[in-house]
Design a protein that fits this description.
By secondary structure, the chain is mainly α. About 75% of the residues lie in helices and about 0% in strands. The chain has a single domain, classed as Ferritin, core subunit, four-helix bundle (Ferritin).
Length: about 130
């Protein structure tokens, strides 16, 4: 069964929503965590990357002729849950028929998110 032409766009929109939600969760974590906590330093670092990923994804949607939804107000309830939702959204997007450029960008981002999740898990276990 072949993907419809809209399925890749729909999955990219869902990915943008998951990434946007996580940027908000990171911002809340930064605002509510002490400066000297290793988790905060990690979140500050990954927050910059994930905001850039969101920008790239929104730009790619426009390049593909779709207009991404405006940023929502949703946040996830936890860093772990948000990471998992974001990782699942990347996996779902990669299951669709994407252009080579889009696939390469999403693969690059997905690998960075997976590395960040591993680092997050290490920091969480040490805490």
């Amino acid at each position: 069964m072949r993907d419809s032409k809209t399925e890749p766009i729909e999955r990219l929109v869902k990915l943008v929503e998951a990434v946007n939600s996580m940027t908000k969760t990171f911002a809340i974590t930064i605002a509510t965590t002490d400066d000297d906590v290793p988790l905060r330093r990690f979140v500050e670092k990954i927050h910059v990357d994930v905001r850039q990923f969101e920008f790239e994804l929104r730009t790619e949607l426009r390049r593909l002729g779709a207009e991404p939804a405006p940023p929502g107000n949703e946040t996830t309830t936890s860093l772990r849950g948000g990471f998992q939702l974001m990782i699942d959204s990347y996996k779902q997007a990669l299951l669709t028929n994407l252009t080579a450029h889009t696939r390469a960008m999403i693969n690059r981002q997905f690998e960075a998110v997976q590395r960040a999740y591993q680092e997050f898990s290490t920091i969480s276990q040490a805490a």
